[in-house]
Design brief:
With 247 residues, the chain is an alpha/beta fold. The chain has one domain: Rossmann fold, CATH 3.40.50. The chain is 37% helix and 19% strand. It is built from 10 helices and 8 strands. It has an 8-stranded mixed sheet with strand order 3-2-1-4-5-6-7-8, with helices on both faces. β5 and β6 form a beta hairpin. The model has no long low-confidence stretch (mean pLDDT 93).
């Protein structure tokens, strides 16, 4: 690290759990973020600020006025701009040392495997069932850590899946792939800070995974009720009959 990096990341480096070695792990890490919306915005911004070396972002939407209430990587002049381009510009202003790769398309099919296999951690910040299950399958296939988040109304949830480690369940152990489509913000609404809280937790869990510190949410589902400010944790078990990760 150079002098500027030592100063930029000094408040993290001061933490004994991180120190120089932990910061170097962050600088060498590659993170894949799927979705540049309410969750992807804060997650990407905190990861860039923290010094993640490489960030790849996939999203196929453009910025709309209704996004600005919660998707903090985008600004009023960005309306009509591709979300990945707007996010890239925001991250470059925040930390020009981070290498950001922005891809305007929905991550699926043949693109999934090469992206997942080269990532140290994948953040699922998408808003639809089909994408979530596809990402989960690829992460299980390549044993890549997955941090999954969701937010709707006043409710948020985060879980971590580490295929092949600690007998971790996968996303399909938690949700059935033949279930109904997940509800989304467009049809049910969402209070803005909930997306920020969930996205920030996703960033924190990704950093802990990269640095191998603390205790992650592997095998646990963290639930937040924003109206009562109650946090709950559900323990998750690997499903032996899971069609994705079951033996």
């Amino acid at each position: 690290m150079n002098d500027n990096q030592l100063l930029r990341y000094s408040r993290q480096i001061m933490l004994p759990q991180i120190d120089i070695q932990g910061q170097q792990k962050l600088l060498a890490a590659k993170v894949l973020i799927v979705g540049a919306g309410g969750l992807g915005s804060p997650a990407a911004m905190y990861l860039a600020a923290a010094g993640i070396g490489g960030i790849t972002i996939y999203d196929n939407d453009k910025v709309e006025l209704s996004n600005l209430q919660r998707q903090i990587a985008h600004h009023t002049p960005d309306i009509g701009t591709d979300k990945v381009i707007s996010t890239l510009q925001t991250l470059n202003k925040l930390n020009p040392d981070v290498k950001v790769r922005a891809v305007k398309q929905r991550l699926a099919d043949e693109q999934l495997d090469p992206e997942v296999i080269t990532a140290d951690v994948v953040l699922d910040c998408s808003d639809n069932f089909s994408t979530r299950f596809a990402i989960n399958k690829a992460c299980v296939r390549h044993q890549t850590a997955l941090v999954s988040g969701a937010a709707i109304r006043f409710e948020g949830q985060v879980a971590v899946f580490t295929p092949g480690i600690n007998n971790s369940p996968c996303y399909n152990c938690l949700y059935s792939s033949d279930g109904e489509e997940l509800q989304n913000c467009a049809t049910n609404g969402v209070i803005a800070p909930i997306t920020g809280i969930v996205g920030s937790i996703q960033a924190l869990e990704a950093m802990k995974l990269i640095m191998a510190i603390g205790e992650t949410l592997t095998g646990r589902l963290l639930l937040l009720d924003g109206l009562t400010m109650e946090w709950n944790i559900m323990k998750l078990r690997k499903n032996p009959q899971c069609p994705t990760c079951g033996m």
